[in-house]
Amino acid sequence: MNFAELELLRATAKETIKLRLGEEPTDNFKYHVLVCGGTGCISVGCQNTLDAVQKAIENNGLQDTVKLVVTGCMGTCEMGPVITIFPEGYYYCRVQPEDAEEIINSHLKEGKFVERLCYHAPDGTVQARKSDMVFFKKQKRNALRNCGLINQTSLEEYIAMDGFKALSKVLQGMAPQEVVDEVKKSGLRGRGGAGFPTGVKWQFVLDQKADQKYIVCNGDEGDPGAFMDRSVLEDDPYSVVEAMTLGGYAVGANKGFAYIRMEYPRAIDHFNKALCRAREVGLLGNNIMGTDFSFDIEIRVGAGAFVCGEETALLASIEGRRGEPRPRPPFPAVSGLFEKPTVINNVETWASICPIIINGGDWYAPWVPKRAKAPRYSPWPAELKIPVWWKFPWASPCGK
Amino acid sequence: MGAECKCNCEQDKSLDALFAQNKGNPNGLIVVMAAIQESQGYLPKDYLVKTAEELGVPLSDVYGVATFYAAFSLRPRGRHSVNLCLGTACYVKGAPEVQAMLEKEMGIKAGNTTEDRRFSLDLVRCLGACGIAPVLTVNGEVYPRMSSDKVSEIIAKYE
């Protein structure tokens, strides 16, 4: 797929998701019914709900006007199984199979939303649409921009949401130094926790003279209650594939490793599917988009060691050794994987990269407070009771 | 999507093919051992000796890796793998009571296998499904919002 073909595909794909973005659709679909297929919802039986909704749509002969889409995590796992219905974005919680007929009859046929299933806030108000929900209003999403909006493994829907736009921009006329400068300007800091400036790390690797350099994605998320990386890898895997490829171009690497913990089988599966599809259409592998830049990614599955989330332990594990941290220096940027200069970034860091390249570093920078930088998403308990998704600017007061 | 993969990434995962691919390559150690663990259910000694010879790694290093990672087991496992999450969220929501009941019903302590090799009971770290804590999985199937009174009914399902 070359640059022109990518844009052509984007134009076609965009038409199919317009309804979800609040634009006038050009196809026959009047409703998009999005069923959450995130791990939280799967665990509370969203497959049964999905089957019931599909059957109800077919029983009522609505296949031509109602599109059923399985998406990634919508963000309120405690409320699962969750369904969002566009164009309005009505948000139904804890939808059981027996609720399907009512949704179809009342909402899709008569245009009356089902209040009973909407989100009832603790203060007693009914927050029917996604845009009404205080939970979503307070958030600013970047790394999770596509989660819950598009099908998890659909390359077309990812491309429709500006996917591979950053990579194509970079390959069409940005020098590696310009890419690194843009990341530096954004002020993006390592989302794995240490908060090291990502652009500075990339600069170290770019400055190294070596016959081989590596890109590594740290997906060995192990802290209790943390599932940021899992959500991204399962629900928007292409965003990491694209960003790693772009990172490879920026620092001069042609090989990447994604280290994903074995406890995340769906993340491994979805990421692998994304790799396959991207290779198939020439967005990964040799001569990406018809240019002379080549890059490929290999998945390494963790073997169940908490400490491998530490970067030097993780690199040792990729090399087939015990995952034991070593003292630094030398830092991985100088001597990392197989003793070659290596960029190792967390999943969330990678997922934050593409919008920065598309919109420029200056676009991201204002989110960044002076000391701790950029919006941070966190599975913090809402009202300290319910484990769900929140994405706040860093350093937001906890009481808020 | 359901599209067939055409990118040739589907490598031959059989053990012989893996040995051939990784001959003389110590970096492939964990990949090979994970495949043995998956196909045999544990790491039999003769397989480890063969791994050491094929990959050119000292047997002591193979043993070191085998005992370092939680995914590897040097002892045979039960037919059904029961994992109870003891991450912080599950813990405060009552996982210890579930653990006590599982141990009582199976007659073993966590980390062991029943004598008839029906069950292996393990305690795992956060599975990342805190919204439905406490979480129990049996052969990968998830049982959300566990409590000790649900235990006997669930394990009766697995022969």
From TrEMBL, chain B:
Which keywords annotate this record?
2Fe-2S, Iron, Iron-sulfur, Metal-binding
Q: Which cofactor does it need?
A: [2Fe-2S] cluster
User: Keyword Iron on this protein?
Assistant: yes
UniProt keyword Iron present: yes
Q: Which domain of life is it from?
A: Bacteria
* One matching Pfam family: 2Fe-2S_thioredx
The molecular function GO annotations come to:
2 iron, 2 sulfur cluster binding; metal ion binding; oxidoreductase activity
User: Entry cofactor note text?
Assistant: Binds 1 [2Fe-2S] cluster.
Which sites bind [2Fe-2S] cluster? C85, C90, C126, C130
Family from the record: Belongs to the complex I 24 kDa subunit family.
Protein name from the UniProt record? NAD(P)H-dependent oxidoreductase subunit E
The source organism is: Desulforamulus aquiferis
Upper classification of the organism? Bacteria, Bacillati, Bacillota, Clostridia, Eubacteriales
